[in-house]
Design goal:
Structural class of chain A: alpha+beta
CATH topology of the largest domain in chain A: SH3 type barrels
Shape of chain A: elongated
Number of strands of chain A: 9
Number of helices of chain A: 8
Oligomer: homodimer
DNA sequence: AACACTACTGCCATAAACTGTCAGCAGGTG
DNA sequence: CACCTGCTGACAGTTTATGGCAGTAGTGTT
């Protein structure tokens, strides 16, 4: 039952090898299948999105591009891919930058909804600096954001002073390579950023915070007159 | 015939929806298939690398992670993904950096051989600066490298002086966000770098250069005592 | 210990799909 | 025109997928 899909991949690889148009007969021989079946295989590949062009009297050409087989990525690997593409889209030369944005869009399109948020929030900031290992559980933070739960933090600031805060987290972003929680701070009664690497300890409350996270995100965006850039 | 693979994706999505273990019976009903077939489907997914754990008396759980369906990327999109992951692997916090390296390895593993080179050469340099749009045809350059062809350049240097060079290109890399051709320069009789955005015009000769590009690459590496870093 | 629930495997008959052969149409080339 | 090629339909033979049944084994509950 895996025979067929393997054959389709072989066919794709064969098409890649030839740069010039190849006739169906040749492809049929190389994949060890009848001509009729080859035509059906080509149709299958095209249906699955492979950009194969066939012209009568000429043959088949695979338009440049690469089909990645189904792959399993961990949450962090996916995050790395997204963050990397985001960086390329922003910092590279225009042509490559567009390619980065396109790749990002393709990945985002097939992601489950709760991961889609990650792609969006990673948009907020991009920067360049090192940081130490995170102590906080990033997926737990994401869960709190998704469920609109109040988060209680033991948080150390730049001077090393430790404070206890209740916040309403609504987005997770990056700034200077440090993960940042965007949240409404109950103590300051204002929007605040919290570096995840400065979180000493945290608790997710069962209580939901009294506002929608999308509304908070919108209000926060409105307070930002100019995007943070360098 | 596409029904089966679609059903497997549905099954994966369903497994993701539930956070708790789900029994095979439930999954069978949701995917509209008999219990016996569901067991076979689960086996298929596991064989394809999905990390599904089944425990008697409990049910099935999908370990966190995300399977991307087969996707078509253009050469440039793939380049953006690779370059982005490379950057994350190098510049981000350790955990995310490892994830970036892992993602890169997974992608590289399924790439055709000639694209594998791209992953390797993108390793040479990473930096951070803007550049203007490339005039040169990057895929043509890669072709010249792959076929070990002599490349003739009209090249403008920092002072705007234009020179004509015959070079033996053996790798393509990045430095400060500018694509760089690594090559042996016939004029200087030494290794030189050429920024692709400073190429005014270029011609690929039919003649192959007299040495193997892998040898040139190795020799060039040997001349680099210390890797270029910041 | 008994029981309910579940994952998992083997067997087999049936249903569905894939495949090859044959035929024919359409577009491009010489 | 002949010739090569892509492309589609129909049919029969083969392969594969599926569902039901029976049985084994692990887990948790009573």
């Amino acid at each position: 039952m895996v025979a067929r899909s393997e054959r389709l991949l072989t066919l794709l690889q064969t098409l890649r090898r030839y740069r010039r148009p190849v006739t169906g007969t040749v492809l049929a021989e190389e994949t060890g299948v009848s001509l009729r079946t080859l035509y059906r295989d080509i149709a299958s590949l095209q249906a699955q999105g492979a950009m194969i062009e066939g012209e009568a009297g000429i043959g088949y050409v695979l338009k440049p591009g690469f089909m990645l087989p189904p792959m399993m990525f961990s949450e962090e690997e996916l995050e790395a891919l997204v963050l990397g593409s985001r960086w390329v889209a922003r910092a590279a030369e225009p042509r490559l930058a567009n390619a980065g944005a396109d790749a990002l869009a393709k990945i985002a399109a097939v992601l489950p909804p709760d991961m889609r948020d990650m792609v969006d929030s990673a948009t907020l900031f991009v920067g360049r600096k090192r940081q130490d290992e995170d102590k906080a559980d990033v997926s737990a933070i994401r869960k709190a954001i998704r469920l609109e739960r109040i988060l209680e933090l033991h948080y150390g600031d730049e001077q090393g002073r430790i404070s206890r805060r209740r916040i309403w987290p609504f987005a997770l972003g990056y700034f200077e390579h440090v993960r940042i929680i965007m949240a409404w701070c109950e103590l300051r009664q204002d929007f605040r950023h919290f570096r995840t690497d400065r979180i000493i300890d945290m608790t997710i409350h069962d209580a939901r915070y009294p506002r929608r996270r999308t509304v908070l995100l919108k209000e926060w965006r409105d307070t930002q007159d100019t995007p943070i850039e360098h």
